[in-house]
Amino acid sequence: MSTLDRAGEVGPTTVPPLVEDEAHTPPAPTAPPSRRPRGLAARVFVTVALVVMTIAFVYPFVWLISASLKPRSDVFDNRLIPETLTFDNYVEVWNAAPMGAWLLNTAFVTVMATLTVTLSSALVAWGFARYRFRGRNVLFGLVLASMMIPGAATMIPTYLIWDSLGMVGTLTPLWAGNLFGTAFYIFLLRQFFLGLPPELFDAAEMDGAGHWKVFWHIALPLTRPALVVVALFEFQAAWTDLMRGLIYLRDREDFTVPRGLKSMLDQFGFGGEWHWELVVAASVIATLPMIVVFFIGQKQIIQGVASTGTKG
């Protein structure tokens, strides 16, 4: 009689039932020690540090706004809430200086500088990232090496070039130099282009797309975060550029805002008429557009910097 015919019996080929061995039962996992106090302390420390740093950065601008709303005798009393509130300083600034013309000149220079350097840097970066040619690495090394040359070393030769072209005294030298790109922006965009899948561009070229179409319709849209970062950086640099305004601008009506503020500082500040309330009011007018632009583009700045850091 086989083992399968015996009811209730287990043959040698069957698997015996599992019996829990209490001696070999693993102990129940214990909960890890609570780290809430340490985590809470770290969060409190970070929060306090952020608050302190925020106050340190915001306080000068708050003081500037407060001083611009005070009369001449109370500008330096260090009260954040003015004892005597007045908006006459902003009216007097527009009467004492052509602020409207300065703002228009600065806006024109800033927009042109931003557009030209963003497009030209993207073109050069695309060439270094996409195409293989003899001497590519050497040329790119020379581009990076140009960042090591101090601006003072090229200031006089650049001035002589613009003077020979008859452009001194105009706004053109303040932005036209960006037609040839900037080394830092070229490096930034090249790293982003290198992180894009080359198969995408190969497929587009196999479908008949030309080089310009691939660049304009495929590469540029994919690099929009990096392009926004470049545009905002250049916007800030062009808006606050004082040096080129001092070198190339002559007529007061052609001044940009930084150059105009320098003339107001000479007229109403040190060695002048000591109307500091006008100087601080003009400074607020010059600063507000940059704050608005960076407030609007802060999300793109963070996204662009973070994504560029992970490319290439």
Quick summary:
By secondary structure, the chain is an all-alpha fold. The chain has helices at residues 36-68, 88-96, 99-130, 136-145, 151-164, 183-194, 198-206, 211-222, 224-239, 243-248, 257-268, 276-309.
Can you tag this structure with a few keywords?
312 residues, mainly alpha, disordered N terminus
3D structure, described in words:
- There is one protein chain.
- Mean pLDDT is 84; it is low at 1-16 and 18-23.
- The radius of gyration is 33 Å and the shape is globular.
- 64% of the residues lie in helices and 0% in strands.
- It starts with 35 loop residues before the first helix and ends with a helix.
- The protein has helices at residues 36-68, 88-96, 99-130, 136-145, 151-164, 183-194, 198-206, 211-222, 224-239, 243-248, 257-268, 276-309.
- Helix 2 crosses helix 12 (276-309) and helix 9 packs antiparallel against helix 12 (276-309).
- The chain has 312 residues and is an all-alpha fold.
- The protein is built from 12 helices and no strands.
